[in-house]
Design goal:
The chain is mainly beta. Helices cover about 5% and strands about 65% of the residues.
Length: about 350
């Protein structure tokens, strides 16, 4: 301690330091000397820290006349890591610059071979912020989630929702199949995306489902409920099927190819319920078939086109070299202008008998 007095003006300086059982440093200055008028008449500073088994504590305090700023914190390493910090001040100058009176922060982190979990919470005066992060990893599934809540005015002005939730999940199924899911929820707006890939010995099916209530996507014209499914098959040939649902409107396409030594066939089907496509003249249902059976000198071929359940075009070609027979068939039925008008058809048949 240092105590001085000069011409009736007194100054006192106190210093105190200890190293055990805790580290502690304190200093005080009191004076009424004109030469020190740039300093507060009464000042105090205190720093302490303590280390125990799996725990560390620290505190800092600064006091100048009626202004006090302090902070304390603790860190624990038992069952993961947890920590907390508390800050407070009553200084007018700090408040004028927008500094808060009280800040409370706490958090935790747990790490294991199977998962990671993190939590952070902060309260500032009358505003709060909280986040929770969870990660999980197993042999078959992976999962991640994030929860975020706040009442911070600045974040509100920036347009950040008061509450947000994000969930992501993926995993593997049998035979190399897998899936993933993404769900987000911000306030009253929701978005979800799911995809599944299923594999079997004869086919692969991919299905994707997307739903939302997001205002921005609505303005862009994205339907609230959408789904797409694609399937690849290899049973008795190759087949591809595509189906889509956009806002309750269905569209699909199926293509099947059969290729064996004595039989080659291509069959395609297209269907939809889209009013936009109907208004532009596209039929609701189209089906086409083309096949070839046999090999020379005996071949049978057929082609057929069906529009909305009506056969519009049919053709056939048969040839038999052993019997000396050749036949060609052609039939065309155009769409009627209206239902009361008579139906006009064009049919032709050519048969030839020959001898080699």
């Amino acid at each position: 301690m240092l105590d001085t007095e000069l011409e009736g003006q007194r100054s006192i300086l106190k210093l105190n330091a200890t190293a055990w059982p805790q580290l502690r440093l304190e200093g005080e200055l009191h004076h009424d000397h004109p030469a020190l008028r740039g300093l507060p008449n009464s000042s105090r500073i205190k720093l302490t820290s303590r280390t125990e088994k799996q725990r560390f504590d620290a505190e800092a305090l600064i006091q100048m006349d009626e202004c006090t700023v302090g902070a304390s914190g603790a860190v624990m390493s038992q069952s993961g890591m947890q920590g907390s910090v508390v800050y407070h001040n009553n200084c007018t100058m700090i408040k004028e610059f927008g500094g808060p009176d009280i800040i409370q922060v706490s958090g935790s982190l747990v790490v294991s071979p199977a998962f990671v979990k993190s939590h952070l919470s902060m309260v500032t005066d009358n505003a709060g912020l909280q986040t929770l992060l969870f990660l999980k990893n197993t042999l078959e599934n992976n999962e991640a989630s994030l929860n975020f809540n706040h009442s911070v005015p600045l974040l509100m002005k920036l347009g950040l929702p008061l509450s947000s939730v994000v969930l992501m999940k993926s995993g593997s199924l049998s035979n190399g199949s897998y899936f993933y899911i993404v769900n987000t929820n911000t306030g009253n707006q929701r978005l979800s995306q799911e995809m599944t890939v299923v594999k079997t010995s004869e086919s692969v099916r991919v299905k994707s489902h997307f739903i939302h209530t997001v205002n921005y996507l609505k303005k862009l014209g994205v339907p609230a409920n959408n789904s797409i499914q694609v399937e690849f098959g290899s049973h008795e040939g190759k087949a591809v099927t595509l189906q889509s649902w956009f806002g309750g409107q269905l569209a699909g396409l199926r293509l099947k190819i059969k290729n064996i030594p004595m039989n080659k066939e291509i069959r395609g089907i297209m269907w939809h319920s889209w009013s936009w496509l109907r208004d532009r003249g596209l039929p609701v249902n189209l089906e086409g078939l083309c096949s070839i059976k046999g090999v020379l000198p005996q071949v049978q071929s057929r082609a057929q086109l069906t529009v909305d359940g009506h056969k519009r075009l049919t053709s056939g070609f048969n040839v038999s070299g052993t019997d000396g027979h050749l036949a060609v068939l052609f039939s065309y039925s155009p769409q009627a202008v209206n239902q009361t008008a008579p139906q006009n058809n064009l049919d032709a048949l050519l048969t030839v008998q020959f001898r080699g």
